[in-house]
Design a protein that fits this description.
Layout: E1 3-8, H1 25-42, E2 45-51, E3 80-84, H2 95-101, E4 106-112, H3 114-127, E5 131-140, E6 144-146, E7 149-151, H4 153-167, E8 170-172, H5 174-179
Parallel strand pairs: 1-2, 1-4, 2-3, 4-5, 5-8
Antiparallel strand pairs: 6-7
Helix pairs in contact: 3-4
Length: about 180
Amino acid sequence: MKKALIIIDVQKEYFENGALELVNPIPASENAKKLLEHFRKENDTIVHVQHISGEGVPIFVNGTQGIEIHENVKPLQGEKVITKAFPNSFRGTDLLEYLQSNDITHLVIAGMMTHMCIDAGTRAAFDFGFECTVIGDACATRDLDINGQYVKAADVHNAFLAALEFFYAKIVTTEHYLLS
């Protein structure tokens, strides 16, 4: 089994003063950093995914600070960076080809937002035949509302992780993953 760490959208737009601030993005990014350091030490494949919106979308605007990858998980020279414009990291990118060309069979996934890009990317990865592990405490999301009902970020996060674990991925903590 050859694995890769996929860090999705840990970008400044999701942190304090960003246009789409999440709940607790710092702890999630610190856990993603621990995973990143582990994968670097093991010389395993690492892929950073960066969202840049298309024209007319008011967030993740090309040329703004919001699109910058957060300091906690900044790519090193030579680490693969995939730029995407959709929630699914595979759509319109060379991610699938890159992973296949490196004989990757297992993805370890972390990043932002649990209910959107983590969910879409994990489901797509599974459908492409990858075994997936999502590191739940290395992901973050935000409060949502639907038809006037407020849903706290913790509930959104847990509901989406529970749904992924039902069929698409193994869900573990950073500590559990690093100790296994």
